[in-house]
Description:
Shape of chain A: globular
Number of helices of chain A: 11
Mean pLDDT of chain B: 84
Oligomer: heterodimer
Number of strands of chain B: 9
Distance between the termini of chain B: 43 Å
Low-confidence stretches of chain B: 72-91
Radius of gyration of chain B: 21 Å
Largest sheet of chain B: 5 strands, parallel
CATH topology of the largest domain in chain A: Phosphoribosyl-aminoimidazole Synthetase, Chain A, domain 2
Largest interface: A-B, 25 and 24 residues
Helix content of chain B: 25-40%
Strand content of chain B: 15-25%
Mean pLDDT of chain A: 95
Shape of chain B: elongated
Helix content of chain A: 25-40%
Number of domains of chain A: 2
Radius of gyration of chain A: 19 Å
Strand content of chain A: 25-35%
CATH superfamily of the largest domain in chain A: PurM-like C-terminal domain
Order of helices and strands of chain A: HEEEHEHEEEHHHEHEHHEHEHEE
Amino acid sequence: MGPGDLRKVLHLLPPGEVREEILVGLDTPDDAAVFRLDGERALIHTLDFFTPIVDDPYLFGQIAAANALSDIFAMGGNPVSAMNIVCFPCSLGMDILAEILRGGMEKVREAGAVLLGGHTVDDDEPKYGLAVTGLIHPDRVMTCLGARDGDSLVLTKPLGTGILATALKGDFISEEDMAEAIRGMAALNREASRAALEAGAHACTDVTGFGFLGHLLNMLPEEGLGCVVHASSLPLYPLTREMASMGMIPAGAYRNRDFVEEWVEWSPEVEDTDRMILLDPQTSGGLLVALSPQGLQVFSGLLKEGREWSRVGEFVSSPRRSIMVEP
Amino acid sequence: MDEVVDARGLSCPLPVVKTREALQRGLTRLEVLVDNATARDNVSRFASSQGCRVEVSEEGGTFRLRLEKAGPGAAGTATAFQAAEAAPSPSSHGTAVLISSDIMGRGDEELGRILLKAFLNTLAENDPLPWRVVLFNRGVLLAVGGADSVPALSNLAGLGVEVLVCGTCLDFFGVKDKVAVGTVSNMYEILNTMLMASNSITI
């Protein structure tokens, strides 16, 4: 569902309960919720599931799990346990489902968590994902809000998964052509999360369905802060630009554009194709991290610039909530 | 009467897939009907990338896209269509230089290597520069670290010439991690380079 529709639905609901244990709940745009147990520990809850993005069932399982686990890492937590969520047409063959689950289970184990169970529903179109529980110190929760004037914005995975998945669906590319994106989607955000914590990140979120700009917008408060983005510094998976220019752009990117447009000022030099790439919904995207100049130094000592992260913009004081996209 | 591709009721990427099928059958003029803005924009984008002019009209929730492939035969009628506001037509792409070997010509191998290096150096001095240099089969060995021709290829890349290196070929020769210049590419892009280049030179 697009960000605009989701907001409309949430407005129809009564406001979320206010309890002091709820550190992150319905009232913030974070993808996970945080519930304090005591002075030392808080639980992080999140869930995510979706339809296959690649044909290989094992890889799909890995990607879906990495994507679900990512919400825990975006907050700086450690995943502890996970439960499968499965919709599957029995006619498709149980060996395929077993491969999906094997991929998911291995990824959960890699993340240091255990898979405890799950629930399956018979459905025409397969869907898979997980509900994940994590632990975190209540004073060390990273959320999407908190960036300050002068902070650098870094991104820890390339963009383009929605465009490439569309091109794969349209037979414009093969799964081999998108091998790098598949590796990227199946990769955990764990190391990036640890580096962000160690660097004292002011804010952190992961890039998923609302695209780079949609999630960046979530990092900006109602007023007082803007962000300058350098479009050419954004890392892209191979073939992303070619496929975007050939119209392999998912409907979600257009929905994201309608949602963020009000707050985005495009430099006329930024080409239309590049604009759509910044709006492309991502599966298991990287972390967006706001870092002070000192934090950036610590971060760059922990992860390799270029390969593991790129500096893609900076936060600036601005009366109006705004994202300025420069070439 | 132009052929009509009815892509109403279809969601992305199917309208683009159907448009591509029609163009691949050799049609130079066609109409595409779609019923959502995403499909309208994506089909327009695709058509522009294939060197087509696009004219869009809307009636009753249906978008009618009139596509005309610009080409030598179509030049006379092209004026009937408004120019697409999107990217310039790919027919503005220049020459593609296709290199399938690490030597130039048949005969002495040592001489062939010297000639190829000289060819690449001369290519960089030529005006206009080629659009792309595509390396495949043994040609990929030219881009591997330590090869004589790496400086010449780097020079071309520095001048803005895109150097594409066939990934399958690199895998075959077991040198994928040794590429020193160019972008690792695939058959899809290589084929499109051949199709979209204004002309090509094969070595």
